[in-house]
Amino acid sequence: MLRLVLAVLLSAVALAAKGPVYVVLWFDTEDYIEPAADDAALRIATDLERLGVRATFKVVGEKARVLEARGRRDVIRALAQHDVGYHSNYHSIQPTPALYLRDMGWLDGAAEFERRERPGVADIQRIFGVTPSCYGQPGSSWAPQSYRALLRLGIPVYLDEGEQVGVDGQPFWFGGVLNVFHMGRYLIRPSLDEESQLPQTFEKFDRAAEELEARGGGVISTYFHPTEFVTSAFWDLNFAKGANPERSDWKNPPRRTAEESERCYRILARYVEHAKARASVRFITARELPLLYQSAAVNGVDRAQVARHMAERQTFLVTERGALSAADMLQVLLGMEPAVVVGPVARGETTYHESTIPRPAFERAKTDAVGFIRTSRRLPAEVWIGSKKLSLADFAATLASDDGAVGAVAIHKGNPEMEKYIATDATGTFSWPIHPDGFSAPELLEMARLQAWTLKPARLK
Question: Cβ neighbours of residue 365 under 8 Å, at least 6 residues apart?
Fold first, then answer.
């Protein structure tokens, strides 16, 4: 009997030691051509409610307007019982976000994204009665300028999948926004066409869950499109390779048979039931994510630890008190309270070629940098030393290496290591049938590298 009690106690302790596994189940609700996709969204929302699971439905602005025009209040009510996010205003109607933002800068690009997307956000608010909980780009049409605009639109979470930026397959902060993106092995997506493959998917899910439990908890991301359950090809092939036909020329996608659709619904239900059966698993929505993670701001930082880290390389630092981005640490070294800022809008150049900087000149440069950050809420591309300047990376490395002693300050070259978390394949990462043939966006990835000053892992509370 004693052995049995001891075994039960040890099992309880082991279970308590496991971290929570949060499953974010989301649906890109976008097909505004095929009416059967409306019924699919309703069926999915109803089935999940019956299973006791809330999902996030990222709704396209035009989809919301079409639901309203078709009188589908039943669909609107059903989705509103879950969580409603935003999936762009028109999705695949040209030009898509990466296309129109590729040749724009940080500030004008953010303003243009907001101009184009604010009406869609407003219609989601009007039709569903909530501000969208999250945003995700159409296809692979990702662009970093969207982050600044999302904060202005009151959208705190970026929920999607892509390869442009990511940290170890788990949520991260980038541009002041909490991201579930580039989830790697923690992206689990059952095939809707092969029910026989479900056992392998369950094994993959269990392995991912075990890893997250062992590391103290984390997120598994799973997504579908309601239209997938009723059509065998995507609705937006009307806009393939940059095409932009008139509405009267749009063609409906091919339909699945009723039996095929039932198989898809059954696969989703079986996957959800398998995940729910695991003691550590909890399904969450995008709206709940900010409540589970520590905020982007970090206080009570050890300046000496920050200086040692930044002197060697400019990238995020994970401490017992929380994670700090390179932007956070630069503010600490400047004597500022870390606040959410964005990265520089351009890549600065060092034109100061002396080996040292006179102490008074360096102190003036520090004061100027503080003034710029406080006024603009972003990092400067470069810092002036009289009529010459240091790139931001060189300034940060020099600042971190400065021991504060009286006398000249030795120049140190920067090592912006955080840029390695940004993709380098400017064609493959933007591959999407809707983009024009050969579409490539190195400009967007370069801008993302500049914003990597704000990158850091998100930490569960």
Answer: 357, 383, 384, 385, 390, 395
